[in-house]
Hints:
By secondary structure, the protein is mostly helical. 75% of the residues lie in helices and 0% in strands. The longest helix is centred in the C-terminal third of the chain and has 28 residues, at 47-74. The radius of gyration is 14 Å and the shape is elongated.
Amino acid sequence: xxxxxxxxxxxxxxxxxxxxxxxxxxxxxxxxxxxxxxxxxxxxxxxxxxxxxxxxxxxxxxxxxxxxxxxxxxx
Length: 75
């Protein structure tokens, strides 16, 4: 759920509303996803779910840092 909350700001109308959530939820989603991959490779849990959470968390935490340099050129 953290990954979904982190990536929900990619929708253009929700970008500025969800920006704090993207920053707060993105890093834990990435970290928990890496822990999930670690455990899934040892046979506990599903690898696809852990990879999905890791990717969503990485996108959610990196997107604000990609958005801020581009933002002055948009307006």
